[in-house]
Task: structure prediction
Amino acid sequence: MAIQNTKRWQWILIGVLLGVALGYVNQLPSTDWKQTYGEALTQHQFEQGLTKLQSGTPWFHGIVVHPERVDTGGRSVPIYVVAGEYYDGRPELQDGKRVAVWRPRCFVAETPFIPVTPPADPLVDETVLAYLKTVPGVSFRYAWWQDPKWGVSLWVGASVLVVGLIWPTVINLLVFGSLTRPREAKPDLSKSADVEVPAVPAAFIGMDGSDTDAPTGVPNAPPTPSVPPPVQPLSNAPLDATSAGADESSKEFGRDEDDFYPTERHAPHR
Result:
């Protein structure tokens, strides 16, 4: 099937299936935190980095919390990866000067999260999200697009928009020169009922109604019913007795010695 023959509803269906597949793959457990978010911090480094400052900037800032899952003991466990920029308190030499350098680091927080230093306000729930809200001066963002509640829906919506709406519109512009496909012409079935079948000439119709000698292309005509000859009416005129008597008078009768009554005589055979 050519691409230009694919209808829009078929593209939308393809977009839905593709979005579900991408959303499922995006929810698979991942353990390569170092490549994605940087090296992992200990819980002490994480909590210390939220409160310590370097030239007015927290050691751990630019925080984004990512919902993730890991496989533990054959089951998938939800966790939070707190990613951001971290300064370890040791300046580095750059251009002849010692300066503070922040590098990508992350902290993997399990649930329930129990802080090393209890916060002043009790936690609403035992998650790292609730803990970050209790630390003064800390701002963070939550990666809601990775949340299982919204991840699959987001992928499906994006796939339908791109594959089901934008892509077929581009094809219509390139192939048909319009935003929509032209309507397909429907066949007119009413005209087919008025077609006349040509009759077969009588010369090609046999005695039994079959057209054995009909030329190619001429359809068979319906068989012609055979008509029996008319019955002649009986005549009421009397038989001609004269002719019958003449035949009888021309015959000769006689009786031989062994005949009991006279019989017709015949000419002797030569």
